[in-house]
């Protein structure tokens, strides 16, 4: 994956641009605390290229009297972790000391930096924006992140740097399942990895060019073969404790991008909190297989229904994608650890499967017969034919006379039927309607 970080002092408009780029609901609400917090990362698509966007401002205290130290931290993390940086300033305020300080740090970095001058809403402002050439970058991109003007030019420049295909894997080599161990700090990622590997960890490859901070380990024991991708135990020198969240989020995204299946660890005692849900839905949107692994199960007081009730609560958070394996383990006591690999590999196989068109039509046209799509404006919607597309994320095209007339509830019905008749446990699937 390619990661673009947005940096800038508070109130220049970073989150407005961010939300425009990811075009998604901005806030994630933390159920436990009732606090609404800003989303800090998401996916964007422009000119056929997909990339991760991180709003580093979302991690630091967003006040006007922000310390320069915080800013330095933000910039350092962006430089360390991102492939490109959008540096945002505010034309209405002009160049401030903080802008200057950030520009100095960014200019010496080796990453591409795009200077975005925000709040350029009229021609007067456009004139004033030229002042920002003095910050020493070759180009300035003027924009109004509220109205969206100028963002296209900025994005054109950003995506021009993204290599066409990061994935170069040859089709002939046997594809070994790649399982990423992801989760928040202290959920037990290192403990799980160490328990699985003994003490030994053989570094097989750091996939060139795609990432900096993931470790790939070839696991081949007990008849199970996979590549474990992890970010556990990687600490930057001088990383302060409160920087941990920054790094861990960005690393989780990198690990995710490289994997077929994500093993999402959560801490049994904390349950699935907003950050876990955010990782879960990001993995879903990236089309990755998912296994939810509830660790530290040894610490839970258990009676007969504990696991069942726990699972029910988790599924409420995961909805609508609930056809996902959930495992209860203890990395400490080494219980059910091999089950984690088994399940990960099984999800990988579910994800790889190609269903023959005849079998698919056999089953799905019956499902369509049993429950027809609702009639829209007096026109009967007919589905004639279904086929699986040759994509990495299992995708199905339903050919129909009126593609636009088929709405969400019916799409969900078809997805449920697919899941009922074929095994896509742990795998996001996509459904398209095409004109016959
Ligand atoms: P990471 O940051 O996700 O890599 O988490 P660690 O593996 O470093 O674990 C964080 C803490 O949780 C450590 O003190 C571990 O000993 C503890 N821990 C990890 N797994 C378990 C578990 O299954 N049960 C219990 N009781 N503690 C665990």
UniProtKB/TrEMBL annotation:
* GO terms, molecular function: GTP binding; ribosome binding
Q: Please provide the record's keywords in A-Z order.
A: GTP-binding, Nucleotide-binding, Repeat, Ribosome biogenesis
Gene3D superfamilies according to UniProt: 3.30.300.20, P-loop containing nucleotide triphosphate hydrolases
Q: Where does GTP 1 bind?
A: 8-15, 55-59, 118-121
Limits of the EngA-type G domain: 2-166, 177-352
Gene Ontology BP annotations: ribosome biogenesis
Q: Name one Pfam family in it.
A: MMR_HSR1
Locate the residues binding GTP 2: 183-190, 230-234, 295-298
Keyword Repressor part of the UniProt annotation: no
The organism's superkingdom is given as Bacteria
Q: Its function?
A: GTPase that plays an essential role in the late steps of ribosome biogenesis.
Q: What family is this?
A: Belongs to the TRAFAC class TrmE-Era-EngA-EngB-Septin-like GTPase superfamily. EngA (Der) GTPase family.
Q: Give the multimer and partner information.
A: Associates with the 50S ribosomal subunit.
This chain belongs to which protein, by name?
GTPase Der
